[in-house]
Amino acid sequence: MAAASSALFSTAVNCPAGVAKAGSLGSSRPKPTSHLLRFRCLQRRSPRIRAAVSVSDPRVADAGRPDDLVASILSKVLQSDGGVSLEREEHKQVAEVAQELQKYCVSEPVKSPLIFGEWDVVYCSNPTSPGGGYRSALGRVFFRTNEMIQGLEAPDTVRNKVSFRALGFIDGEVSLKGKLKALDDRWIQVIFEPPKVKVGEMEFQYGGESEVKLQITYIDENIRLGKGSRGSLFVFRRCQ
């Protein structure tokens, strides 16, 4: 596991102040014909026509789209137990929204200071990936996940934590600490120390080092999207 503010577009349409008033209509000057009056009416209407065309510009109509996409993807995953309760079609919909959001990602997300902070892992397309065996079908029978948190501390520290309740009454957690390394402008690598486990009053460490690679595909003040080296999609929401 592994994090450009969304841009707002606005336009201003400046219309001419108006058309100069016609001169006096004394007997020394001929009165304007109906054709001339119609021409002046068209002159006064034309700014409105230009404004309507500008507002319909697709770049303007698309204003705020990243915010809409963020709201959409969160609405699909927040109550899904990290993706466990979603059907195949729903996973597909999440992937489609993530693909659209990717178009709005900053050019070098790895260098963005927005990656730092604490993030909730609110979704993974492979729900057993974060948390390992504790999130498997069998593991969920004995361990009810309370939260999955990832903290990124400048300049290169990553802390992952899965907290759970074992057998319905014993609190516990699994934690990992790792070092982050940027592989390019979008991909990061994290090498984790052996995991530490705490169940009730017991604490122990087991296993060896592990390594993950993650591509940051979108980031803003609220969410971060990542894709693992095996194709798993992650959605992180910044902790409130």
Q: Which characteristics define this entry?
A:
single chain; alpha+beta; Lipocalin; eight-stranded antiparallel beta barrel; 10 strands; 32% strand; globular; disordered N terminus; transit peptide; plastid
Give the SSE map.
Elements (H helix, E strand, L loop, with lengths): L33 H22 L2 H4 L3 H13 L10 H15 L14 E8 L14 H4 E11 L3 E10 L3 E13 L4 E6 L3 E4 L2 E4 L4 E10 L3 E6 L4 E6 L2
Antiparallel strand pairs: 1-2, 1-10, 2-3, 3-4, 4-5, 4-6, 5-8, 6-7, 8-9, 9-10
Helix pairs in contact: 3-4
What strand line-up does the widest sheet have? 1-2-3-4-5-8-9-10
What letter string, H or E per element, gives the SSE order? HHHHEHEEEEEEEEE
Rough shape?
globular
Largest sheet, in brief, is:
8 strands, antiparallel, barrel
CATH architecture: Beta Barrel
Low-confidence stretches: 1-64
Q: What is the helix fraction of residues, given as a range?
A: 10-25%
Overall mean pLDDT stands at 77
The CATH topology is given as Lipocalin
Please give the alpha-carbon distance between the first and last residues: 20 Å
Number of DSSP strands? 10
Structural class: alpha+beta
Task: Give a nutshell description of this structure.
By secondary structure, the protein is of the alpha+beta class. It contains 5 helices and 10 strands.
3D structure, described in words:
The structure is a single chain. This protein is an alpha+beta fold and 240 residues long. The protein has one domain (66-238): Lipocalin (Beta Barrel), CATH 2.40.128. It contains five helices and ten strands. The protein has an eight-stranded antiparallel barrel. Strand 2 (143-153) and strand 3 form a beta hairpin. The protein is globular, with a radius of gyration of 28 Å. The relative contact order is 0.17. Mean pLDDT is 77; it is low at 1-64. Belongs to the PAP/fibrillin family. Keywords: Plastid, Transit peptide. Its main location: plastid. It is found in: Plastid. This is Plastid lipid-associated protein/fibrillin conserved domain-containing protein.
